[in-house]
Structures are given as C-alpha cells and as structure tokens.
Design goal:
heterodimer, A: 151 residues, DNA polymerase, domain 1, 5 helices, B: 732 residues, 3 domains, five-stranded mixed beta sheet, 27% helix, globular, disordered N terminus, binds FE2/S2 (inorganic) cluster
Chain lengths: 151, 732
C-alpha cells in the first residue's frame, strides 16, 4: 500500500492503494466514481476510457503509480451538468441502448474532438475502434460525433 | 373503443410522502424528454409535497406530477421508456410531467416481469394501458363528484380535467387525493389508435442523461456500507469439477478476507430451467476491493478432475454431419420422397454456425446481503421472479423474505435469463455474514457461459424440368438442440415438404441467445433460397413473393406459423425503398426476410469487398411490428440488431479445445467494431394498427442471410460456414 495524491475532475484526492492497482479500480472501488466501466481489463473494449491530461486512455491498464501529477477526467467530470457538446449530441441522437459502453464511447469521442474539431468518417473509425458496443449503436455514435463537431 | 374487464385488484390507499423538507428539484429533461423539442431545456420539475398511489402502476403528486412504474427489467431494449408510455397514453398525461421509476418485483400486481422473447411490449400492451385508463377514470369520477356533474361529461387532456358546460378545470394533482379513495372500476374504456398522442411519438430514453453523465445505474455500480468484493473460480473446462484447492497463498494476499468453496446446486432435481450447474463447485475469494480479489485469484492453486468427455470444435462439424442421419421427422407435406426422385435437378447445401458467447458489456455480477433469515439481492437479471425461487430453494429462506431489486442491465441477450450468479452471491454473503458484490471478470463471463448452441442444417430443393420448385427438405440439428422451426416459411408454400430435426448432447452449458435458433436458421434458409432462386432463373425477391402468394391463397398444410401477407408486405416495402432491380448497377446487394418473435423484418444489404475485407455501405430494413410505440427507439433497436447480426455473421465464434473455451476476452473473441459497421442504415416501418410486437430479437436473424447473399454478389463465392470472415483469411 502507498499513498497517492491524484487530481481527479479538478479536485485533489488522496488515496491509499497498492501501486499496481489500475486507475479503473481506484476510481470505482476507492473513490466511488462508478461511471467509468469495467468491460475487459486488458485494454480491448474501451469501456474504462478516461482522460489523462485531456488524452483518452484505458484506465484498466494504467497503474495508479504511473499517474503522478497528470490530471484525470472521468465521465462524471466531463462537464458540470451533462452539457459537454458530446453529451448533448448523445442525448439529441438518443444513442444508448443498454448504455454500459457509452461513458467510454463519450470519453473517446470527446478526446477525438479535442484534437480534431472536424473529423472525417475515417478519423472517427480510427479513434473509436477500440470502443466496443455490443448493442451496436455505432451508426448513432458516428452521427452524434458529427453533431458535436458542428455544435 | 375497446372495453376490457379490469384485473387490477383493489389498490392500497397508502399515501406516500415525498422527500422530507417539502420537495426536491430535478431537471425533468433527463427524466423524460421528447426528441422533437429543443435540447436539454433547463426547465425544472418541482416534486410534489405528497404522492397518492392510484393503482400500483402510478402515483400522482398533489402538483400534477406523475410517477409511472416501469415493471420489466431493462436490458437496453428501452422498455423503461416505452412501457410507461403506454400507461401515460391512457392516463392522458403530458409526458413532461412523468417521472419513471423501476418497479419492485411484484408479479401479483405487474404479472410478467421478465425480459425475454421480445414480449414486454406485446404482453404489456393491454394491461399497461388499462392501468393508465383506470387511473384516468377515477380522476374523472373524483372531479365529477366535486363539481356535481355527470362523469360522462368530464374530459381530459394532458393531465387536465375539464367540464365544458360549467367551464371548470383542474390538473390531476388537485383530485389525486380524492381519486385515491375511489374504487377502481370494473370496466375501462381504452383509446382507439387514431386518438393516440404519446404512442407513436418518439420519446427519449428516460435514463439518457444519467447514462451520458455516468450516474450509477447498473448492477456493477452497486456500493454499500461495509460491502465486500467477491469472485469465483470455476473449472477451466466443461467436463471438469473441483478436486482440491490450496488457498494458503491467496489467503495471505493483501485485502483478502476469506477463501472458501461453495456448491450452488447440490441437488440437480431442485433445479429450475434458469439454473445452471455446469460448474457448481466453485472456489470463492472475498476481499476488500475488486483488484485485490483479482490478484488473490491468480495465486489460487486448484486441482480439477475430469467428470466427462471434453468437447472439441475442430471435430464438431464432422460429428454433426455424421449425426444428421439420426434425424426425426417434424413435418411432412405431400410426397417429398417421390418428388426428389423425379426431380430434374436437386440442389443440396449445408450450413454451420459455431457456439457464441453472449458477451454483455457488463459482465455478470450481483449484490447480496443475506442476514437474519432474509436476503436482499440487487443487480442485473432478466428473470427475477424465477431466481427468487432458486435463491429461496437453495438457501432455505422463504420467498417473502427475499427481495430482488432490478437494476439497469449492461446488455442481456438472453445471458441474464440464467441467474446462477444470484445463488452464488447469496451463498457467499451468507457464508461471510456481510453484504458482498460478486463480480465476474470478463474471462469468467466468457468461459462460464450459457452459449448459443453450435448448429448445422442441410437444405435440399427439387426442381422439375421447367425449373419449378417441386419439393423442399430441411434437416437441421445442433449441439445440444436443433434450430428447426418446422412450420415456418417456406412450409406452407411448397407442395412436397419435409422437415427433420436432430440434436447431440453436450456438457457445454447453452441457453437462449438473442433470437434463439432463428439466429442461425434464418441466415441458412435465406441464403439457400437465394441459391434456389438463382438456379430457377428468378429474381430472389419475386421468388419469395411467389411462394408467399401461394402460401396465402393456397396454403399447404394447416399449421403454418406466419402471416403470408405481412411477410410479403415487408419484402415489398424493402424492395421499393431500396429501389431493388432499378438502382443496383455496381452494387452487390443481398436480400433476406424473416419472421420470428411475432415481428416481420426484411433487409436489403449493399456491400463491397476491398483488400479482402467486407465493407457494408448500406442496409435497408423494412419492419412490421404492428403499432410502433416509440418510433425512434424502435429504429435504434433495428439499427443495433442489424449491426449485431452483421457482426456475428462475419466475425464471431467461440471454439473449444478439450472442453476449454479458446477465446476468453475481446483480444481473441471478435466482436464487430466501429470501422466495420454499416455506413448507413435505413429503417422503414409498415404502417399498421395491429397490436404491437417486440423488436429485441427480430432484427438479428434475417440480416445474416442478407450478408451471405451480398458476399456472393461481391465475390462470386457462396459462404456456408459462420463466421464468414475467417481469422487471417481474406474474402474473394
Ligand atoms: S475495461 Fe479497459 S479497455 Fe476494456
Ligand atoms: S449501448 Fe450497450 S454496449 Fe453499447
């Protein structure tokens, strides 16, 4: 066990954890931020996507000891009240079915739009291919990303 | 107008108070919102000071806000929105004033609280509207009494009561208290289709905002004071059981509270259909956090022993083909033997498909707190009523002391019909004497499945010298069940018809998987019909329409399990919308149509093959599911089912080696990804006033046939064995 000072959603948080603990479980079990989802644990599904200094990362493969002073954003901290353009576009297109993958999808999409404000279909496919949706909402996700890019 | 005897019992007169301190503010737009309205208005819905229970399905606040209980488990089929819409329609309430809550498990009141068979909307259609209509009726009676006018003269609109002649009006909240005292009427009047205001108008997912902001909604999000985390270790192979365990290393790992074994189903005779005992001796690790438990699981030293033979996928196709000789007749019309004997040409083709894992994105999990002879269970399960019985039987706790709470589910697809994980969680909590959350790792989830069976079907068609279809023969089976539906199309459309069925036992646990059996047989049949049409020199849509015409006007046999006119209806709609036969230049198009779970779906799919990889450009879907309750959500289901069907047809499969599943996570198990999804999906609904049917399953089966038929157009080669894209191989 060791103590880590983390910057999460704009707040400083002190957590006690084994240094190898993936951020996913620190967020979910230790901090109760359960919006970040567990899907595979091996960086193969994207459900656990968070932002580390604004960049989409798979939290299931990121040990807490590697975070250092980088700032972490989770789905809970993406916006004040669900009004991030990507979240608004997701609601406008009513994207979710079961909804379980969507936090990860939104975090990947928001990171994509940070880098590329007008992504092509190929850009979207490349950035989003690591995020599985078993319910098959891919076409709506693409449409929502385009709406978010415009707005 | 429809009159129905009400079956809703006398409601309780309990008034439940709202949040202490006089109300809570919540943004209504994320509780209920309408697609056509501007986004996320910051209007705020004031919660009432007092709620009045009207009939168990709904309560009305003194300010006119209405809470509607959504009775069924939500697995992504969106019934948490569409079922309350049925209540709201007959209550005649403004949807903006509706708050939706997940109902508790109470099948005396809510009847069928199960997610399966695409039946929620179909079976809730009358009862939910009745719940709304009876509530509206008692509100009208309360107003009539207060205003001293005949109840027949009271009208309603969007949560308001009116008496025209005296120009009186009031909102529902003003009479909620009085209405709660009035006996529920014996007969209620339901609206006719033309008067619907909510049904048929898209309403957004009531959990939409919670989902996109990451609020706790799913079973895996459950957290409680003092809750411990638990995981199980099951045998690595089907046909193995626990021999011994050395838990010394695991027990000394940080954060670990206990390691022990449980036996979920010691008595096979007490099992219900939804219990799974492929692995019933399990090693359990309990600790302070998910990660610590995962780490301890890694250092368990477990010895397993063989109990029966091991399955190998490599030999399955051969084994199935050999076993098909033992098929039993399921239906025979005319004289198929003679017709095949006299045929000028016989076409024979065989089709196969592998086992599939459900792979719900949220792995299996459940919270349990068993103490003082009571069990509280919270989590994702499609069959809460059945699992309540299983937990009761296994733990010896009476049913009335078991409380199962339904959470939103990260997918179901049939996997969560089999709730052995509730029994596991309950036993673990009982043993450690603390609330626990049992979590399956992805590997546990994928290797302890209730898989889609492996299937095999051989089709034969006999043509006469004029290339007329004179006989049709299907012989279908699988491990461990047959996918045959003997009375489905083209039964009834061919004079000489034979359907045969066989099955081969296995120790691999299998179960219902999105559109059971149809999920294979539709694709096989629709690919075969395509080949037959080609040999006959007919357009594949016209060929199907001709058969359906015969089935409609001059059916063969009596038990034909489809409505030929509705079947033809979706084919014609998809033909017209896709400009079939007119705009196909340069396109590789495949067509397919199927009827299952009471709904009809037809597809036209356009694809190309580039660098050996399929690219699906466009899919047209035509659907007849009767009245469409929530059109945009229905469209979402169609799109999702289409993507899911394409993905499984092209890429997915679970194989076994010596009883061990060879894929245990998404690095090896291929699911369709963003770049492989169709670029465009168009969905067209048949306009209908027939009672609605479901859409959870119907979009899945036919699209597989459309993929196969389009692949043939693109490559000149027919595909028979799913998944069509083999690992490391190119198409074409
Ligand atoms: S849980 Fe991290 S990528 Fe799947
Ligand atoms: S919405 Fe269910 S997995 Fe994506």
């Amino acid at each position: 066990m060791a103590t880590f000072n983390l910057k999460i959603n704009g707040k400083n948080q002190e957590v006690e954890a084994d240094p190898n603990t993936p951020m996913l479980w620190v967020l979910r079990d230790t901090l109760g931020l359960v919006g970040t989802k567990y899907g595979c644990g091996i960086a193969a599904c994207g459900a656990c996507t968070i932002h580390v200094d604004g960049i989409a990362m798979r939290s299931c493969q990121m040990p807490v000891s590697k975070v250092k002073d980088q700032s972490i954003t989770t789905i809970e901290g993406l916006s004040e009240n669900g009004n991030h353009p990507v979240q608004k576009a997701w609601m406008e297109h009513d994207v979710p079915q079961c909804g379980y993958c969507q936090a990860g999808q939104i975090m990947s999409a928001a990171s994509l739009l940070n880098d590329n404000s007008n992504p092509s279909d190929a850009d979207i496919d490349a950035a989003m291919n690591g995020n599985i949706c078993r319910c098959g909402t891919y076409t709506r996700i693409k449409a929502a990303i385009k709406t978010a890019a415009k707005g | 107008m429809t009159f129905i005897k009400t079956k809703v019992g006398r409601r309780s007169f309990i008034k439940s108070s709202a949040v202490a301190g006089g109300g809570m503010m919540i943004g209504f737009s994320w509780l209920a919102g309408c697609k056509t309205e501007p986004m996320i208005e910051e209007e705020i819905l004031q919660m009432p000071a007092e709620w009045f229970n009207i009939n168990g399905f709904l309560k009305i606040g003194d300010n006119g806000v209405v809470t509607i209980m959504s009775p069924n488990p939500e697995i992504g089929q969106n019934i948490k929105t569409s079922m309350p819409m049925l209540v709201a329609e007959e209550l005649d309430i403004d949807w903006k004033k509706v708050v939706v809550e997940q109902a508790p498990l109470n099948t005396d009141l809510y009847k069928r609280q199960l997610a399966g068979g695409s039946q929620s909307i179909r079976q809730g259609w009358k009862s939910l509207r009745m719940a709304g209509a009876t509530a509206r009726r008692v509100l009208c009676e309360a107003a009539a009494k207060a205003w001293e006018v005949p109840v027949e003269e009271i009208t309603t609109d969007a949560g308001m009561l009116f008496h025209k002649a005296t120009e009186k009006s009031a909102h529902y909240g003003e009479f909620a208290s009085a209405a709660a005292e009035i006996e529920i009427p014996e007969e209620v009047e339901l609206k006719s289709v033309k008067d619907f205001k909510i049904i048929g108008n898209s309403k957004r997912n009531v959990d939409g905002k919670k989902i996109v902001t990451g609020q706790p909604l799913f079973g895996l999000d459950t957290q409680r004071e003092g809750m411990l985390h638990a995981m199980i270790q099951h045998p690595p192979a089907f046909g193995m059981k626990l021999k011994s365990v050395d838990d010394s290393a695991a027990k000394s790992m940080p954060g670990i509270k206990d390691v022990f074994t449980i036996n979920t189903y010691p008595d096979a005779e007490k099992k219900q259909w939804c219990d799974v005992d492929a692995f019933s001796d399990l090693v359990v690790v309990v600790g302070n956090s998910t990660w610590e438990v995962m780490q301890a699981k890694e250092v368990l030293k477990v010895e397993w022993e063989a109990t029966s033979g091991f399955e190998n996928s490599a030999s399955h196709t051969e084994k199935m083909a050999a076993f098909a000789g033992k098929a039993k007749e399921a239906r025979k019309d005319g004289n198929p033997e003679a017709a095949f004997k006299n045929a000028a040409e016989i076409i024979e083709r065989s089709y196969t498909a592998p086992f599939l894992a459900h792979n719900c994105m949220e792995p299996m999990n459940f919270f349990a707190d068993v103490k003082d002879g009571k069990a509280e269970l919270v989590g994702p399960v499609q069959t809460p009523e059945f699992m309540e019985k299983s937990v009761s039987t296994r733990l010896g706790i009476p049913l009335e002391n078991i409380d199962i709470q339904m959470t939103r589910m990260g997918g179901g697809f049939g996997r969560r019909l089999y709730g052995h994980f509730l029994v596991e969680a309950a036993l673990i909590s009982q043993k450690v004497g603390a609330p626990i959350k049992l979590t399956y790792t992805r590997e546990d989830d994928m290797t302890f499945g209730t898989y889609r069976p492996a299937y095999h079907a051989t089709y034969r068609a006999a043509l006469d010298e004029n290339k007329n279809l004179i006989a049709f023969h299907i012989k279908a089976g699988g491990i461990p069940e047959s996918p045959l539906f003997a009375n489905r199309f083209p039964a009834g459309a061919v004079d000489n018809y034979l359907a045969e069925s066989w099955s081969l036992e296995s120790n691999i646990s299998t179960g219902a998987w999105r559109a059971p059996r149809s999920n294979f047989i539709a694709g096989a049949e629709q690919a075969f019909l395509d080949e037959v049409a080609e040999k006959m020199g007919k357009d594949p849509i016209q060929f199907r329409l001709d058969l359906l015409e015969k089935a409609k006007n001059n059916p063969v046999g009596e038990k034909n399990d489809y409505d030929a006119a509705r079947y033809a209806g979706v084919l014609k709609l998809v033909r017209d919308k896709s400009n079939w036969g007119k705009a196909d230049a340069g396109l590789n198009r495949g067509v397919s149509a199927y009827f299952c779970h009471n709904s009809y779906v037809a597809n036209v799919l356009d694809l190309k093959v580039e660098n050996g990889k399929p690219i699906v450009d466009k899919v047209y879907c035509a659907v007849d599911c009767g009245i469409v309750v929530n059109p945009d959500a229905a469209k979402n289901m169609m799109e999702g089912g289409t993507v899911d069907g394409i993905g499984h047809a092209l890429f997915s499969g679970l194989t076994f080696k010596d009883g061990v599943p060879e894929q245990s996570n998404f690095d090896k198990y291929r699911l369709i990804r963003h770049s492989e999804a169709p670029k465009e999906i168009e969905v067209h609904f048949v306009k209908s006033e027939i009672d609605p049917t479901g859409l959870g399953e119907p979009p899945f089966p036919p699209i597989i046939g459309a993929v196969a038929n389009a692949l043939y157009k693109a490559t000149g080669k027919r595909v028979y064995d799913q998944p069509f894209v083999k690992e490391g191989a190119l198409l074409g």
